[in-house]
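> example.struct
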């Protein structure tokens, strides 16, 4: 059931809960995420420099992940009002340092840019979402690469988890040799922005 009364926005945002930032060190010598509040703000501000498509989002009866575009009915470039109309109100909202906020749902999280209230990132961890019919949570690296080709970049974290990144607008995290989540982001965005972690994203 979709909600259309946007009057809840002020009340809901007034109840924002601030969480400690979770910054995970990279296994390589260089960190893959911002380390200080100033760097977090700078990284968040960079999201304002990327143009977004002007869309009248269509409705799809699927859970397909399309790099650089959408996850099911959630599109990059959607307004907050369009997101709430399609997905309902989020379970939680986290205001990040800088200019973005996260809207949390049961199967995904959405990053919204404060400047124009539009979607700039989607993290998907619901088992019903997939790339095509063969790549979903738990799928292997070989199946992912067979569907998308070799990634443009890869990196590993201290705990052994690995991320694959495609400039078409997708990052994929592997935990215990299976896909743990997908990050849908703007095409040609730096991978640090695609997988930006502060606020628990």
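> example.seq
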């Amino acid at each position: 059931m979709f909600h259309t009364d946007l009057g809840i926005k002020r009340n809901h945002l007034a109840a924002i809960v601030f969480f400690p930032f979770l910054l995970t060190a990279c296994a390589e010598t260089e960190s893959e995420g911002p380390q200080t509040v100033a760097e977090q703000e700078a990284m968040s501000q960079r999201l304002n420099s990327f143009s977004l498509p002007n869309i009248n989002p269509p409705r799809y009866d699927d859970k397909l992940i399309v790099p650089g575009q959408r996850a099911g009915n959630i599109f990059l470039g959607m307004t907050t009002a369009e997101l709430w109309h399609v997905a309902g109100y989020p379970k939680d909202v986290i205001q990040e340092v800088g200019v973005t906020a996260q809207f949390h749902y049961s199967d995904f999280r959405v990053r919204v840019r404060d400047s124009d209230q539009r979607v700039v990132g989607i993290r998907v961890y619901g088992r019903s979402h997939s790339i095509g019919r063969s790549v979903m949570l738990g799928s292997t690296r070989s199946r992912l690469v067979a569907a998308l080709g070799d990634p443009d970049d890869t990196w590993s974290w201290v705990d052994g988890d690995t991320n694959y990144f495609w400039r078409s607008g997708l990052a994929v995290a592997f935990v215990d040799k299976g896909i743990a989540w997908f990050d849908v982001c703007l095409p040609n965005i730096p991978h640090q922005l695609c997988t930006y972690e502060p606020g628990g994203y």
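> remarks
The longest strand covers residues 178-185.
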